[in-house]
Design brief:
Layout (H helix, E strand, L loop, with lengths): L5 H7 L22 H19 L5 E10 L2 E3 L5 H11 L3 E12 L4 E13 L4 H7 L20 E5 L2 H5 L3 H16 L20
Antiparallel strand pairs: 1-2, 1-3, 3-4, 4-5
């Protein structure tokens, strides 16, 4: 797992497959503005960086963003930024995008896809928003849907674990695709009849 997220680690344990955590050092900077393309590109970048250093491993990478009113929202860098984000999301629907990538053979084989969930935030007073800001600076959108003490989210339409940061339906699909691709038989090369030596003719 190319991520230091404890939430992703907890979710991945559902696969019941032994894994190691090796956080990616890949840059999260990008000029992409389409949310789907962005999260898939970053997930591939993270997984590929770790896969190059561990070519014998199957490496899983993920990236999550929040998209609201045409804006891409990532992890807040300060309490003040968290306040601005929560005001933007307050009492509104937004989307959570998570890109997932599975990279094998040191980068020679890669699979990826994007999961999307719609999320509705509750209407909170300014005082309540200020009290919530800063609790989850390590989460895209500045909130944690899995935290029972965080009342900000009212409803999730779609995969709940996608909002947490790792959509397991996507992970299972990628895993199956990877296993299927590795089981494909290698096609045999047909003999070039023109290059076969001819039998000598009698006479």
């Amino acid at each position: 797992l190319a991520s230091a997220s404890p939430q992703r680690r907890t979710i991945l344990k559902r696969l019941r497959v032994p894994f190691r955590v090796i956080p990616s050092r890949a840059s999260a900077r990008s000029t992409l503005r389409d949310p789907r393309r962005l999260v898939v590109a970053l997930a591939l970048r993270k997984a590929s960086q770790v896969a190059r250093e561990h070519p014998q491993a199957a490496v899983l990478g993920a990236d999550t963003i929040v998209f609201c009113r045409g804006r891409i929202i990532v992890k807040p860098r300060s309490r003040a930024e968290a306040e601005r984000i929560l005001r933007l999301l307050n009492n509104s629907w937004h989307r959570v995008y998570t890109g997932v990538a599975l990279v094998l053979e040191g980068g020679g084989l890669a699979f990826s896809e994007c999961a999307v969930s719609r999320v509705r935030a509750r209407k909170m007073s300014e005082v309540k928003l200020m009290s919530l800001a800063g609790r989850h600076l390590d989460k895209a959108g500045g909130y944690a849907v899995q935290d029972r003490r965080d009342p900000f989210i009212k409803r999730v339409s779609g995969d709940h674990d996608n909002v947490v940061g790792l959509p397991m339906r996507s992970v299972r699909r990628l895993w199956k695709r990877a296993l299927k691709s590795r089981k494909k038989p290698v096609p045999r090369k047909r003999a070039d009849h023109a290059s076969r030596p001819r039998k000598p003719t009698e006479g």
